[in-house]
Specification:
The protein is mainly α. It has one domain. Helix content is about 75%, strand content about 0%. It is built from 5 helices and no strands. α2 crosses α5 and α3 runs antiparallel to α5. It is elongated, with a radius of gyration of 16 Å.
């Protein structure tokens, strides 16, 4: 798929079953680790000067961080709901 039109990093089978991506991700990282690693990425980028940041300034980076963190948490809840539902079926 082309950029902006949908996922560009997912393989065909992952696009067909995005829950498998959540399962793999949250099977590797805890929610706490996600927050910690993501914050490290953002906080280190904020140590740069505005010129070094390029087209996105600190305000845009922090806003993106806040929204992406909410996205990760929503994905986590979806993942946990799916695994809980599967466990109840077994």
């Amino acid at each position: 798929m082309e950029e902006g039109g949908g996922p560009i990093h997912l393989k065909r089978m992952e696009r067909d079953n995005p829950s498998a991506v959540l399962e793999g991700f949250f099977g590797t990282y805890t929610l706490g680790e996600c927050r910690e690693i993501f914050w490290d990425i953002v906080s280190r980028s904020l140590c740069c000067t505005d010129e070094e940041l390029g087209s996105h300034g600190r305000k845009e980076i922090l806003g993106y961080y806040e929204e992406a963190e909410r996205l990760i948490e929503a994905a986590f809840l979806l993942f946990k709901g799916q695994t809980t539902h599967r466990e109840m079926e077994e």
